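How a chain folds remains the central question behind the approach discussed here. This step matters because it turns folding into a mapping between discrete strings. The sequence in question and its structure tokens are set out directly beneath this paragraph.
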Amino acid sequence: MTQLLRGQAFADFVLGYEHTAFRLETRERYNEPEEAEQVRRFLAGEPDYAWNEEWAAMMRRRTALGQRMMRVRIVSEPRSDYTRFGLDLARVNVAAGEDIRYLPREQAKDLDLPGHDFWLVDSSRVGILRFGYDDVLLGAALRRSVHGIQQVSVELSAGAGGARPQASGTAP
């Protein structure tokens, strides 16, 4: 069995990028315990993203240094509650420098994409994300080869399949 990076080791892997960090998000929902209250507030019409300020500040600093973080989120219609929450939160993160794009699931079916989430760090290290039955992140399994994964990130970054950037303040 593959050992998973968890907790601080996982955070160090993702945030250890010097140039680029790319994530493909394929799931309808992520059950992150630290986001549960924020999702609840969003669904109640009371979004408050003050909890995200540390992340946004880090993104501003890293963007100013020329470091780039990008996510492509594959989404279904109608949008799930979590997707709507993510779209709203993306406004804050895009304004801070993250490049977040959305690709409709129907269009993604025509592309040769992996069926799992991953992080590609500096085009040289891949972490395949593993989730429990309850959609909670278990950790990342590191892969030795970036073959295929690197090409996916290049194509999606270039807008393949119609992956649309999330403009600050707008929903794709």
